[in-house]
Specification:
This is Carboxymuconolactone decarboxylase-like domain-containing protein. The protein has 189 residues and is an all-alpha fold. It has two domains: 54 residues, no CATH class; 116 residues, AhpD-like, CATH 1.20.1290.10. Helix 9 runs antiparallel to helix 10. The chain starts with 7 loop residues before the first helix and ends in an 11-residue tail after the last helix.
Length: 189
């Protein structure tokens, strides 16, 4: 970690009641796990931490996406941005949501290029993995790929997929730039 981790008790004791309330909101979202290393990094700025916590709460707890789709997004963003801490957390969740072993191997590749049948992913999962890669690597998404996404998901789901990819790109860039949980370096698997 490139900054000292903030201790929850210390920050609550040393900050205003507003900032202490931020810690409480983060703890509520994280319950029962408590503050995670990323929380302890961004709490250097309570206002930023509060807004980020609200965004991530919406993305992880209040969208209509199925768990497999959500976790595929998180896994692909983690791989593409070399955010190993994110991969270590989300790969088991993707497996638990029903992503096959072959699908997990595909998600772990630096570049994905095989078709859906060879990837071990369903057509919808494959489209989301490709869309996530396009948004993460290039930002701009080709019309053909967007049309494929739109043909498989509702408008609400398209917005939620796009927002989840964007949010996890933000999260992964924080993880890597600050070296949260000291996970930077070569691919650990």
């Amino acid at each position: 970690m490139r900054l000292a981790y903030v201790e929850a008790d210390a920050i609550k004791a040393s900050l205003s009641s507003d900032a202490a309330a931020v810690v409480d909101r983060i703890l509520q979202r994280r319950h029962p796990r408590g503050l995670q290393p990323l929380d302890r990094a961004i709490l250097h700025s309570p206002s930023f931490a509060d807004g980020f916590n609200a965004l991530m709460d919406a993305v992880t707890n209040h969208l209509t996406l199925t768990t497999d789709i959500n976790e595929i997004i998180m896994c692909r963003v983690s791989i593409r941005n070399r955010a190993w801490y994110g991969w270590e957390h989300h790969a088991p969740l993707a497996r638990a949501s029903g992503v096959s072993d072959t699908g997990m191997k595909t998600l772990a590749e630096d570049q994905i290029g095989a078709g859906a049948r060879e990837s071990g992913l369903t057509d919808k999962q494959w489209t989301v993995a490709r869309y996530t890669d396009a948004m993460t690597a290039d930002v701009e998404v080709a019309d053909e790929l967007f049309a494929a996404l739109k043909s498989q998901f509702s408008d609400q789901e398209v917005v939620e997929i796009t927002g989840t990819v964007a949010a996890y790109n933000c999260l992964s860039r924080l993880l890597v730039a600050l070296n949260v949980a000291e996970r930077n370096g070569p691919k650990p698997f």
